[in-house]
C-alpha cells in the first residue's frame, strides 16, 4: 500500500515467499511452524494453478464422467444408467471445487497460519530484498533477514507453429475453466494434461482429435500407454501419434484448420494447445541475486534443500526449481526447504543427507505420477531405460492385471503391471500400473521404492482378497519369489 506520498512502504520479515500456490503455502506453513515470520506474495489467485486451472478443476471434470463409465462397466449397475451426462451440472460441480475462482478462503488460510499475505508482483531488487508492485501501482519493499523462496510455478510453452499466434486457442487454463463442450475439439500435445482433457471433453460430447508431434505419454512404458490409447480410441477419439503440425489457420466462422505433415487436415471449433510447461522465472529480478538463468530459462542447480547454486539466501521449490513439475513433489520440496531454513535460522546445521527431513531427494528415485484418464496410468520410480541410463542392472516382470478383484471391479477389466527390479539388491527401481482405478495401488509401490524394501520382504506383505492389489502377489510369483 502507498502511504499517500508516493514513497514505497517498507516491511521486514524473516522470509519472503514469492508465489502462493500449494507449494508456496506449504513452505510458509513450515516456516511459521519453525518459529519464523513470513510474507507470502502473489500476483494472481492464492492457491495457484493447481487449485483453479489444473489439478482440482481437471479432476473435478473427469470424476463424474469416470463414475458413469464405471457403472456401465458392471452388469446390473449398467441397466440403472439410463440418461446422459448432465454437462451443465458437471461444470457447476467443477466451479464449486475452484470456489468460483475466488481465493478469499485461501488468503484466509495463509493469514490463519500467521503469515502475511501481500497481493502484487514480487521481484528481487537486492540481496534478501523483494519489491512488490501492487495492481494500483503502489510498491512495497520487503527485507528478509534469512531467506527469499521462489515458488512461482511454471508457465505454458507455446510451440512455434506458423499461424498459431493469429488463432484464439485454448490453453489448459481455458479448457479447465470452460463452460462449453465444443462440437469439435483438436488437441495439440500428447502429454498428461492433453490426454486427460481430450477424454474429458469427448465424454462431455465433443468429437476429439489429438495431434502429438512426439508421441503420446512418451515417458511411460509403451504397453501401459497402449492400454490407455486402445480405450480412448474405442471411445471414438482420433489420435495422431508422431505427427507434426505445419500450420494453423482461423476461418471467419470461428473454426480452426490444423494442417498436418503426412495426414489430412483437421478442422475444429476449438483448438487446445497443451505442449508442455517451463519454470516461471521471467521478471523475477534474478540478476540482483547474481543468478544467471540457463539457455532454456531455468535456474542453475538447485540443491535438495532448495538452495539455489551460488547464493546462501535464495531458495526455489516446486515447478520453478525445474526438477519435477508435479504438485505433490513441489509440496514435498516445500516441506524440506521450510524446515531447513527454520533449522538454519535457529543456529543449527541441518543434516541434508538422502533420508533427512531437510532434503528433498525423492525426485531422484521415487516420483509417483498418475495420468487420470480412464483407464488410469500410474507409475513411480524409473522406467527400464531410465534405470539403465543411471547405471543400474535391472530386470523386469510384467503381466496383465487379471485377478479376482479386477474381475469383480469391472466386467472386461483390462490392465497391465510391471516391476523394474534392481538385481544388485533385489529391490524395486520402478513400478507401473495401467487400468481402471490403479492410482489407488500407487502408494504401496512408492513406499516399497522409497523404503528400498527387498522382494523377499515384500513377499510377506499379503494383499487382501479379493482386491486388485492381489496383482502384487502375481508379480512377485513371476519374479521368482
TrEMBL record:
The keyword Membrane does not apply. Its cofactor is FAD. Keywords: FAD, Flavoprotein, NAD. Residues 367-472 form the Pyridine nucleotide-disulphide oxidoreductase dimerisation domain. InterPro entries: Class-I_Pyr_Nuc-Dis_Oxidored, FAD/NAD-bd_sf, FAD/NAD-binding_dom, FAD/NAD-linked_Rdtase_dimer_sf, Pyr_nuc-diS_OxRdtase, Pyr_nucl-diS_OxRdtase_dimer. The keyword Flavoprotein applies. Signal peptide: none annotated. Residues 14-329 form the FAD/NAD(P)-binding domain. It holds the Pfam family Pyr_redox_2. Belongs to the class-I pyridine nucleotide-disulfide oxidoreductase family. This is Oxidoreductase. It comes from Tersicoccus solisilvae.
Amino acid at each position: 500500500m502507498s502511504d499517500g506520498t508516493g514513497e514505497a512502504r517498507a516491511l521486514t520479515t524473516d522470509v519472503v515467499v514469492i508465489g502462493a500456490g500449494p507449494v508456496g503455502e506449504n513452505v510458509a506453513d513450515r516456516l511459521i511452524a519453525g518459529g519464523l515470520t513470513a510474507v507470502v506474495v502473489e500476483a494472481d489467485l492464492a492457491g495457484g494453478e493447481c487449485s483453479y486451472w489444473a489439478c482440482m478443476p481437471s479432476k473435478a471434470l473427469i470424476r463424474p464422467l469416470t463414475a458413469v463409465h464405471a457403472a456401465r462397466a458392471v452388469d446390473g449397475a449398467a441397466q440403472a444408467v439410463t440418461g446422459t451426462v448432465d454437462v451443465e451440472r458437471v461444470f457447476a460441480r467443477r466451479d464449486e471445487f475452484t470456489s468460483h475462482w475466488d481465493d478469499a478462503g485461501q488468503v484466509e488460510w495463509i493469514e490463519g497460519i500467521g503469515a502475511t499475505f501481500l497481493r502484487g508482483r514480487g521481484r528481487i531488487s537486492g540481496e534478501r530484498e523483494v519489491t512488490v508492485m501492487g495492481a494500483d501501482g503502489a510498491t512495497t519493499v520487503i527485507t528478509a533477514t534469512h531467506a527469499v523462496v521462489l515458488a512461482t510455478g511454471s508457465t505454458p510453452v507455446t510451440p512455434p507453429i506458423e499461424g498459431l499466434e493469429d488463432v484464439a486457442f485454448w490453453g489448459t487454463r481455458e479448457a479447465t475453466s470452460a463452460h462449453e463442450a465444443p462440437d469439435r475439439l483438436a488437441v495439440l500435445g500428447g502429454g498428461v494434461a492433453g490426454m486427460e482433457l481430450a477424454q474429458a471433453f469427448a465424454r462431455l460430447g465433443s468429437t476429439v482429435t489429438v495431434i502429438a508431434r512426439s508421441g503420446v505419454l512418451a515417458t511411460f512404458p509403451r504397453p501401459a500407454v497402449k492400454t490407455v490409447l486402445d480405450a480412448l480410441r474405442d471411445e471414438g477419439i482420433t489420435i495422431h501419434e508422431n505427427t507434426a503440425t505445419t500450420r494453423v489457420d482461423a476461418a471467419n466462422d470461428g473454426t480452426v484448420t490444423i494442417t498436418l505433415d503426412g495426414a489430412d487436415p483437421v478442422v475444429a471449433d476449438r483448438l487446445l494447445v497443451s505442449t508442455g510447461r517451463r519454470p516461471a522465472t521471467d521478471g523475477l529480478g534474478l540478476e540482483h541475486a547474481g543468478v544467471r538463468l540457463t539457455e532454456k530459462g531455468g535456474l542453475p542447480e538447485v540443491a535438495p534443500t532448495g538452495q539455489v547454486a551460488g547464493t546462501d539466501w535464495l531458495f526455489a521449490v516446486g515447478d520453478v526449481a525445474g526438477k519435477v513439475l508435479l504438485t505433490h513433489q513441489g509440496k514435498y520440496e516445500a516441506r524440506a526447504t521450510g524446515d531447513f531454513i527454520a533449522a538454519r535460522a535457529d543456529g543449527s546445521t541441518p543434516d541434508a543427507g538422502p533420508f533427512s527431513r531437510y532434503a528433498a531427494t525423492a525426485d531422484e528415485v521415487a516420483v509417483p505420477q498418475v495420468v487420470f484418464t480412464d483407464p488410469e496410468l500410474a507409475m513411480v520410480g524409473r522406467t527400464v531405460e531410465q534405470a539403465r541410463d543411471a547405471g543400474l542392472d535391472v530386470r523386469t516382470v510384467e503381466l496383465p492385471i487379471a485377478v479376482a478383484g479386477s474381475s469383480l471391479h469391472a466386467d472386461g477389466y483390462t490392465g497391465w503391471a510391471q516391476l523394474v527390479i534392481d538385481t544388485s539388491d533385489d529391490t524395486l527401481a520402478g513400478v507401473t500400473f495401467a487400468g481402471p482405478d490403479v492410482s489407488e495401488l500407487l502408494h504401496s509401490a512408492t513406499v516399497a521404492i522409497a523404503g528400498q524394501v527387498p522382494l523377499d520382504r515384500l513377499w510377506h506383505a499379503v494383499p487382501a482378497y479379493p482386491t486388485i492389489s492381489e496383482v502384487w502377489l502375481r508379480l512377485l510369483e513371476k519374479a521368482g519369489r
